[in-house]
From TrEMBL:
Belongs to the class-II aminoacyl-tRNA synthetase family. ProS type 1 subfamily. Catalyzes the attachment of proline to tRNA(Pro) in a two-step reaction: proline is first activated by ATP to form Pro-AMP and then transferred to the acceptor end of tRNA(Pro). As ProRS can inadvertently accommodate and process non-cognate amino acids such as alanine and cysteine, to avoid such errors it has two additional distinct editing activities against alanine. One activity is designated as 'pretransfer' editing and involves the tRNA(Pro)-independent hydrolysis of activated Ala-AMP. The lineage of its organism: Bacteria, Bacillati, Cyanobacteriota, Cyanophyceae, Nostocales. Its EC number is 6.1.1.15. One of its GO terms (biological process) is prolyl-tRNA aminoacylation. Homodimer. This is Proline--tRNA ligase.
Length: 601
């Protein structure tokens, strides 16, 4: 392709609305253009990158025996009602774009395709002989993200590869999952990314095990906790660890103390001269279930620990049926305004005890009359602890479970693991923290969708069984931008060779020099014929401008038909290392071929 004929517009300055380097660079280098919030046009250079990523993804998927298809983006609400996700996705998370057509039928723009694929499986899979099966597609997804940002990283319209497997049993699912794990590792390695596979939370999608593939980069929205022995890595949402040991309590007898102005743990511990590990902190949450029931949740956790709200939400989802619901729509720490809806009298916030009376709740038909009391594991073994006295300005010290307080029945792990915590698999290892960009997520779904939607098959014994499912996503457009986030310098993008829009760019320093032009044209033709995807900068611009642009757009090899042509040579510069060497014109094609095949192997 000739730059003189391309839509080629680069910007010298950083665009005002871009925050992270990869977003700035893709805009400046003319790869993408913002059309609206979270909505971008992929311009020709970007589209080539996306197609390269897609092709790598496709090859790795095909190698596992998965089959490509294309599912509809317009999805009938009926399907989502069958799976029970219509309300969660349109109201709770509100992430799905829903619309009503001219016949008053409700539809959604696909944020994901479990429902559609399960419908197909229900209709078409009859027998164990058809299993296992893995179908995938590469397609635009729509999600009404609360905070679209960072360009392609979190768009409202983005490209995803999603795959769905159907297996006869858990064992077969595990095998497919393992194949996907390997395929994902291959995709990311081949795309030139440095990444980590981590244990992940399964979120609203449901199911059991899941792994996220994180591209390591400072700008990542996710925190990963890992150990240096390589035995453990998890998203902080999911991570577990051993908490620090609790210190022995200095309080030997139970008493109520006046503790004015100590509504935070720090102030309390200063005042009482004790360690936060001797305090039972009681945190109030307000959960809204999908049947419109509000439940007040009191979490008792050790004073030095924080609540992991993802884990808490998962526990509340498990308890949903006790309140007649299926899912948690909203989970908040209720502020004064939220308390108005249910508080019968002002709460002694900051001084709450595990046994705060239920008559603080003004029960209505939509508000559960009792606190749901949950104890994090960290409080179970505490002796002579400090906690609130249910009266503003007062705490109790020297308290014990089974004496002054009853340990809640629901004992759960809802603490946030932190860097520096000891690892469970080996307490000599401590957790370290890194930032990551989630580019892929693989799930063992189990039978959640197949049972909800009645997708069954007949096994060898002639029994009808629900299909066991897995699902596997890769953010193709996010991955492409993540590659930039991991690889750039002050002058621009440095594409990994495997996903660069072009391998090489031939730059003519002076287009008025006939010999420069002739050699450039000849190399441009030969390189392309040899399968080396090459650009020709034949614009009537100064050499300096052309070099700057070539650096900015990040093409791996630049060939300059400058002074060296007098000796039958051209200058070849590698973008990544900036190494420059003069190579005989006749050897350019073979040299580049060698470098490229080495770089993508
Ligand atoms: P996140 O936690 O980042 O919102 P997710 O858990 O919602 O991601 P999945 O539903 O598992 O993501 O989707 C599969 C993949 O699609 C993700 O791993 C990610 O790479 C990509 N992806 C998800 N949401 C977006 C988005 N808004 N923009 C771009 N890519 C996305
Ligand atoms: Mg999301």
């Amino acid at each position: 392709m000739r730059l003189s004929q391309m839509l080629f517009v680069t910007l010298r300055d950083d665009p005002a609305d871009a925050e992270i380097p990869s977003h700035k660079l893709l805009l400046r280098a003319g790869y993408i253009r913002r059309i609206g919030s979270g909505v971008y046009a992929y311009l020709p250079l970007m589209w080539r990158v996306l197609q390269k990523v897609s092709q790598i993804v496709r090859e790795e998927m095909n190698a596992t025996g998965a089959q490509e298809c294309l599912l509809p983006q317009l999805q009938p609400a009926e399907l989502w009602r069958e799976s029970g996700r219509w309300d969660t996705y349109t109201k709770a998370e509100g992430i799905m774009f829903a619309l009503t057509d001219r016949r008053e039928q409700e539809l959604a723009l696909g944020p994901t395709h479990e429902e559609v694929i399960t419908m197909i499986a229900r209709d078409m899979i009859r027998s164990y002989r058809q299993l296992p099966l893995n179908l995938y597609q590469i397609q635009t997804k729509f999600r009404d993200e609360i905070r679209p940002r960072f360009g392609l990283m979190r768009g409202r319209e983005f490209i995803m590869k999603d795959a769905y497997s159907f297996n006869a049993d858990e064992e077969s699912l595990k095998k497919t999952y393992q194949d996907m794990y390997q395929a994902y590792s291959n995709m990311l390695r081949r795309s030139g990314l440095s990444f980590r596979a981590v244990e992940a939370d399964s979120g609203a999608i449901g199911g059991t095990g899941s792994t996220e593939f994180m591209v390591l980069a400072e700008a990542g929205e996710d925190e990963v906790l890992y150990t240096e022995d390589g035995q453990y890595a998890a998203n902080v949402e999911k991570a577990v660890s051993l908490p620090a040991d609790a210190e022995n309590s200095p309080f030997t007898s139970y008493e109520k103390r006046e503790t004015p102005g100590t509504e935070t743990i720090e102030k309390l511990c200063d005042f009482l001269k004790c360690s936060p590990t001797q305090v039972v902190k009681n945190v109030l949450y307000q959960a809204l279930y999908d049947n419109n029931t509000t439940v007040l949740v009191l979490v008792s956790i050790r004073g030095d620990q924080e609540v992991n709200e993802v884990k808490l939400q998962n526990e509340l989802t498990k308890l949903a049926s006790e309140y007649g619901g299926n899912a948690v729509l909203k989970l908040i720490v209720p502020d004064a305004d939220a308390q108005k809806k249910w508080a019968a009298k002002p709460l002694p916030l900051g001084y709450v005890a595990p046994d705060i009376a239920d008559d603080y709740i003004q029960s209505t038909k939509d508000v559960a009359p009792k606190f749901l009391r949950l104890a994090d594991k960290t409080v179970v073994d505490l002796k002579n602890f400090v906690t609130g006295a249910n009266e503003s300005g007062y705490h109790v010290v020297g308290a014990n479970w089974d004496k002054q307080f009853t340990l809640p029945e629901n004992i759960v792990d809802i603490r946030k693991a932190r860097p520096g915590d000891r690892a469970i698999h080996n307490p000599e290892q401590t957790l370290k923290s890194a930032r990551g960009i989630e580019v892929g997520h693989i799930f063992q779904l189990g039978t959640k969708y197949s049972i909800a939607m009645g997708a069954t098959y007949t096994n060898e014994q002639g029994e009808e069984k629900p299909l066991v499912m897995g699902c596997y996503g890769v953010g193709v457009s996010r991955l492409a931008q993540a590659a930039v986030e991991q690889s750039y310098d002050k002058d621009g993008i440095i594409w990994p060779v495997a996903i660069a829009p072009y391998h090489a760019i031939v730059t003519i320093p002076n287009i008025n020099d006939a010999q420069q032009v002739e050699i450039a044209e000849q190399l441009y033709t030969e390189l392309n014929q040899a399968g080396i995807e090459t650009l020709l900068d034949d614009r009537n611009e100064r050499a300096g401008v052309k070099f700057k642009d070539a650096d900015l757009i990040g093409i791996p090899y630049r060939i300059v038909t400058g002074r060296a042509i007098a000796n039958g040579k051209v200058e070849v510069v590698e973008r990544k290392s900036r190494n420059s060497q003069e190579i005989h014109i006749t050897e350019v094609v073979s040299t580049l071929k060698g470098w490229i095949s080495q770089a993508v192997s």
